[in-house]
UniProtKB/TrEMBL annotation:
Stated name of the protein: Basic membrane protein A2
Database matches in Pfam families: Bmp (PF02608)
Domain ABC transporter substrate-binding protein PnrA-like: 28-280
Any one Gene Ontology cellular component term annotated for this protein: plasma membrane
Length: 329
């Protein structure tokens, strides 16, 4: 089934087919993004998931680079076109889907972000992407691979409560794994500024950090390069980023957004859409540690450190490790 860009006229096309019946029509999925499908990360990965459900037989449509001012019109447009599932890729779609969901009770709306405090309509769902468990895990790995006497540092992006909680959980994971380690973080306020990322990394390295992890898109790329330039280790995020800083990257926390898109489509088709609440995949369903086809860089991560980290990762995934906040909020 072909992938159709932007707003599609799939409904009209199907209706024009002789003998078309609603009960037998393909399932229809729309994906709306505020960035480009060529960004190499967040939006491209969601688009890859959409391509996969298209190949599985769904009729799909997408819109990229949608300005905030156009989110409402675009979202209603796909709903009016009769899409069964509309996916808003990011927190920017929260208020819009909360508002329009009740107007289209027979369709489903999924936001790839944390749920708001408000009541969620029964046909709207959000996702817990396990950012905090992931951050704890990254802190644990950073602590395990830090040279003796060195600390660990986190570089964030936009300065918001979610990014700060990720920083705190990173620090918690490091200190729980290596008691007394110097764990620190900087959230510079921008996801897309490599210079700020390099500056943040350099500042923490100057204060003793021997390992840097980021969760900051383009800003994070600067952090990785800054770590390599300073001769310290680093952990990438979202994709396998070993090529960004080959001498520094020990592993990357890789998100499986294509699986998330496929799975929410499957749940919706099976009438198991988690409407009115929060979908919570396991850590190991949505995330993985990757380095050049393996898990970790053996030149930077000892076998003993890798084994201990694997135990921590397994515990966070199956719930036997359920870290309570020790730092910050």
């Amino acid at each position: 089934m072909p992938l159709i860009g932007r707003r599609t006229f799939a409904t009209l096309a199907l209706a024009a087919i002789p003998g078309f019946a609603r009960a037998t029509r393909p399932f229809r999925v729309a994906l709306i993004m505020n960035g480009t499908i060529g960004d190499g990360g967040w939006n491209q990965l969601a688009y890859m998931g959409l391509q996969q459900v298209s190949r599985a037989g769904c009729v799909t449509g997408y819109a990229e680079n949608v300005a905030q001012a156009d989110v409402m019109a675009m979202s209603r447009g796909y709903a009016e076109d009769g899409y069964d599932l509309v996916i808003g890729h990011g927190f920017e779609f929260t208020a819009t889907f909360q508002e329009i969901g009740p107007d289209y009770p027979d369709q489903s709306f999924f936001v790839t972000a944390f749920a708001p405090d408000d009541t969620i309509p029964k046909n709207v769902a959000f996702v817990d992407m396990n950012y905090y468990a992931l951050s704890y895990a990254a802190g644990a790995l950073a602590a395990l691979i830090a040279p003796a006497g060195r600390g660990v540092g986190f570089v964030g992006g936009q300065d918001n409560p979610s990014q700060r909680r990720m920083m705190y959980r990173f620090e918690d994971g490091a200190r729980a794994t290596v008691p007394g380690i110097n764990a620190m973080g900087i959230v510079p306020g921008d996801f897309n500024n490599a210079s700020l990322g390099r500056e943040a990394a350099s500042t923490m390295i100057g204060h003793g950090a021997g390992v840097i992890w980021h969760a900051a898109d383009v800003t994070g790329l600067g952090a990785l390069r800054g770590a390599e330039e300073a001769g310290v280790r680093a952990i990438g995020c979202y994709t396998d980023q070993w090529m960004v800083a080959p001498k520094a990257v020990a592993s990357s926390t890789v998100i499986n957004i294509p699986w998330m898109v496929e799975e929410i489509v499957r749940l919706t088709q099976a009438r198991a859409f988690p409407g009115g609440g929060i979908w919570a995949p396991r850590l190991d369903q949505l995330w993985a540690m990757k380095w050049r086809g393996g898990t970790v860089n053996p030149a930077l991560v000892t076998a003993a450190a890798a084994d201990r980290f694997a135990q921590i990762w397994s515990g966070l995934s199956n719930g036997t490790i359920n870290p309570q906040p020790a730092t910050g909020g």
